[in-house]
Sequence to fold (195 residues):
Amino acid sequence: MIFRFGNYTLDVDVERTRAFYARGDVKTTSQQCTCAGCQNYDKAILKMPAAVTDFLESLGLDPRKPAEAFDVMGGLAEDGKVLYNGFYHLCGVRLRGEDAWVKTAKDMKHLDGDRMYAVDGDFKVSFEEEICLLHEAFPTPVLQMEFDARLPVALAGGYHYVPSAVYTVSRDEQGNVTVREEDAQKWADPLKADP
Fold:
């Protein structure tokens, strides 16, 4: 099915996309992670205006099942909302439109919000051909829909972000990268964190 969103033209197999998200082994954000960011996303995405949820569902996506969603700030923005980035996968191809990821240095890119399509004032998307974290059973061809969102706090006890894990990344003189997982709870309590 052909879709046109701003400068993007897509050919999406809605039924194959929908069938993938209906699988029992494809989890919601709150089933994948226990941090406040993921727990909140799972509830808050369904509180977004119908323009957002209808948009996602029209593409065959389950709003609660992004491949990745994360709290950009690790807390609330000035307006009291939680800022998220992340992405969903679609079975389809991009026929027209430009990447919203802009190269800023040799190995660095940033997501340019001005190149994204505004579904509503708090939810923007772009459609990328570079794919990350793809489920092994996802049908091809694959398109990645990046999102930039401002979601309300939907957790009953308020929003207190503590990551489920903290990673330290280092590179040695030969260029080898080492990733070390640390106890996130240590970072949640400033008195326990290393100086």
Notes: The mean pLDDT is 85. The two ends are 55 Å apart (CA to CA). The helical segments are 14-21, 29-32, 36-44, 50-58, 184-188.
